[in-house]
Amino acid sequence: MELLSRTQLITALGAVALALFVLDLVRRRKLSEEYSLLWVVATAAVAVLGFSTPLLTGITRLLGFLGESSTVFAFGLAFAMVMLLYLSVKLSRLGSENHLLTRELALLRHELETLRDDSDREPA
Amino acid sequence: MSRDVLVIVPSHNEEASLPQTLSELRAEAPDVDVLVVDDGSRDGTAGVARACGVAVVRHAVNLGVGGALQTGFRYAVEHGYAVGVQLDADGQHDPRFLAELLAPVRAGDCDVAIGSRYIAPSGYRAPRARRAGMVVFSTVVQLALGQRITDTTSGFRAYHRRVMEVCQHEFPKDFPDAPLLIALARRGFRLREVPVLMRERRAGESFYTFGKTLYYPYKNLLSSLMALLQRHG
Q1: How large is the ipTM?
Q2: What's the pLDDT at A1?
Q3: Residue B5, by phi and psi: left (phi above 0), alpha (psi -120 to 50) or beta?
């Protein structure tokens, strides 16, 4: 097996560190399992590419990239785009839900005030 | 006497113009109920409205005119109103035309009546950029529906209960203009324009100003297209 290049090693170790950090965030309940999945998959992919030289060179040749590091970065970038799109979708949904809750809250509060006024008016 | 018309007044920081709008409304149309939707105002809008003796619903944050209208629809449906009328707080909409706006909806001739500035010559001159936008969106609506709506941005409209029942759940966000009209017509609701005169706003800020000049055309064109493509069951 060929020796790992320095770039490969740094990338792979960085990916492992990031994966551990992501898992730790889940453990501390700062990140929900749902969002952690994409991160764990992506970091695992980068780590595998980084550690396995034959796989990396194979994919690089297959896709016609000029260098192995480009392959790793291309995967990283693709992941970032997917993640951003996913977040935009989530954010849109969160916005709609927020919108709905604001309206619902306004109506409920109005109803509460109306009921309170009515009960104040009734003789004790 | 049972009241079956609810006038919905979306208001965002309108304490200056609201009292006059409401008293004028009461004078012209004493037999309708009024709901002010205070859309996250930071001034005394809600208090001013309550002092006028009308129902007030307050959004904790600003949702935009579409959100305010949607809250009004929900309220109207829950309280059993037959027709909902949208009327601006700033005094642009003259309540003298309320009866004319209500008539076709009540008679069952249409489901949405739109008070239009451009059917009858009114002397209203919009700024040039806005006029261009109006021509564009009027054309978009015509292409999409085959029906000519001259005033797509008019916020002076009457909606039948059937329309409000749908809109309380599904509604284009931000600006309830061309995309809303397309979505409604695609659902089979009949739109009709009624000539009205509009006035200058009394005070306060337009919903359509601050920094939205670029976003507005983009968002409205896209959402008009989507309204055409989306399935309406």
Answers
A1: 0.81
A2: 44
A3: beta
Task: Dump pLDDT digits (tens) for B156-194.
Answer: 999 999 999 998 887 776 677 888 898 899 889 999 999
Q: Is B63 an interface residue toward A (CB < 8 Å)?
A: yes
pLDDT of res. B216: 76
Q: What is the pLDDT of residue A42?
A: 85
Which residues are B11's β-sheet partners? B38
**Chain A to chain B, count of Cβ pairs less than 8 Å apart?**
35
Q: Does B78 sit within 8 Å of A103, measured CB to CB?
A: no
Mean pLDDT over each residue of chain B, to the nearest integer: 86
B190-229 as b/e: b if 16+ CB within 10 A: bbbbbbbebeebbebeebeeeeeeeebeebbeebbeebbe
Instruction: State the DSSP string of B46-83.
Output: HHHHHHTT-EEEEESS---HHHHHHHHHHHHHHTT-SE
Tokens read off for B120 = 């009858």
Amino acid at B186: R
- State whether A102 and B57 contact (CB < 8 Å): no
Q: Do B173 and A110 touch (CB under 8 A)?
A: no
